């Protein structure tokens, strides 16, 4: 059996093009001509020994093999970049302070910390999981080097918009919610303590739809909110990122709830030119977040 060794340079072009949704943009980002990119994609199909793309209208879409290849391409590139960072930055030392929302505490943080620690064992990380307002205050005052926060429209001096995440009505994973708009009863809302961006989005959407509501449960922590929602005390609003098994997103129309807007996600930096440790940690945070976004937007 012929052993296939995939070209990482080709895989990077493939992954970048799929991330940007356009291989012409990928060519521009990677500093290549469109013909060179086309040649790389042809080479990828030859190495794979099966079609990666299929025609879809005027454009191209991935075949089943292409979808499989994309997942492996991203994993190979992440491992390659981690190895390069490990051998080229073995003397990276110091410490870096990272802040992020509770939504990412169990899903993103372990992966990021594990990968960073393997590559840079001499660097200490201080991670703080707090609410949005405190994240922005801390990164602005220099108490955090990096902060991953939901966007309320506030911009710090050095921030990067990562993308938008759909907000969803959330209910218990078992059975149907006890409330329905047709009942005429106020919707029981479970929420985090104010100020809360998602709580504000929920009440605004309900008010605009003419649906009465009541605060059925208020929690200072996300864990308490999940427990109340799973117990059926009320419905809440979050994004699909980091949902525990005991709750699930609801189809809003089935119980008479309004659709919800998307929520921006921003990475804030304390300095325009962070220390090398902060730069590397930011890269890993962005990779993990983009992977989570791909999953929820798929």
TrEMBL record:
Family: Belongs to the LysR transcriptional regulatory family.
Source species, domain of life: Bacteria
Name of the protein: LysR family transcriptional regulator
Gene3D superfamilies: Periplasmic binding protein-like II, Winged helix-like DNA-binding domain superfamily/Winged helix DNA-binding domain
Keyword vocabulary terms for this entry: DNA-binding, Transcription, Transcription regulation
GO molecular function: DNA binding; DNA-binding transcription factor activity
Keyword Transcription: yes
UniProt organism field: Rhizobium leguminosarum bv. viciae
Domain HTH lysR-type: 6-63
